[in-house]
Amino acid sequence: MSGPPPYGRLLVRPDTLDPALRLFRHTGGYGEFGTVAGVAAPGFPAYARLLHPAELAGQPVPWTAVAAARGRPLTAATCWHELVGKDRDHLHTDDGGLPGVWDEHPAEGPTPAALAHAVLPVLARHTTTPDRCWFGLWDGYGRRNFDGVPTFTTPGREEILLSGPLTDVTSPVGEDEFTELPDLWWPEDTAWIVGGDVDLVSTYVGGSHALIADLLATPGVEALPVQPGAPVD
Q1: Distance between CA atoms of 47 and 108, rounded to whole angstroms?
Q2: How many whole angstroms separate alpha carbon 190 and alpha carbon 209?
Q3: Helix (H, G, I), strand (E, B), or coil: what is residue 185?
Q4: How does pLDDT run across 45-93, given as a tens digit for each residue?
């Protein structure tokens, strides 16, 4: 009997959850819900927050441009709703953005495909196993029926385990532009962890100091250093 169909080119793994269990044994467990280490994983030397860009006429707009237009500082702790002067619960109510600056909020959810493409070469340089990676996909997006596939637990989420080379992480969008990328990505050698969530406009990465410095210097990627216990947005 054949297994479940792939998610893009990533294999759905109903046969094992051991790689996820090994990951969290390696990192010392889970972080607290609502924190950087709760979205990614604890135990890494350094972390970065990758900001999902806003848009203007379909083109990416960095948060620094919005901050400059609003005359507000941008720090690792800045929340999008604070930056644009909105209440979080009413962020999308009657909001056309700021003319000439932005007209679409940053994408909520796992890493946007364009941002993922930008960071893939950096991540690949900082692992010895880029062709052997594992991924966690929240079993709540509803675009695929995963009945009977076992899940592993992260703070507040149940995740389906996927596997494949790092370069295939963006392959699901080839089937449907609205299909979500995996929430969690990590290589077999557990050199780093990428974490996102359905409710967030940022992606969080834990890894070596060298990896985080590399991400902070990557053109087209808006990244800020952040602490593992910091709240997420």
Answers
A1: 20
A2: 15
A3: strand
A4: 999 999 999 999 999 999 999 999 999 999 999 999 999 988 776 676 6
pTM of the complete model beyond 0.90: yes
Contacts of 114 (CB under 8 A, 6+ apart): 60
CA angle centred on 140, ends 129 and 172, rounded to 5°: 45
Pair of tokens at residue 198: 């359905």
Give the ranges where 40-181 is alpha helix by DSSP (H).
63-70, 80-83, 113-125
Q: State the alpha helices, DSSP H only, in the chain.
A: 18-27, 36-39, 63-70, 80-83, 113-125, 209-216
For residue 113 the two structure tokens come to: 């495909």
**pLDDT single digits (tens) 91-135:** 766 667 899 999 999 999 999 999 999 999 999 999 999 999 999
Distance separating the N- and C-terminal Cα atoms of the chain = 42
Asked if 179 and 165 count as a contact pair (C-beta separation under 8 A), the reply is no
Q: Residue 1 — pLDDT band, cuts 50, 70, 90?
A: very low
Q: How far apart (Å, rounded) are the C-alpha atoms in residues 215 and 89?
A: 31
d(CA 164, CA 100): 41
Q: How far apart are CA 204 and CA 195, in angstroms?
A: 5
User: What is the rounded CA–CA span in Å between residue 180 and residue 183?
Assistant: 8
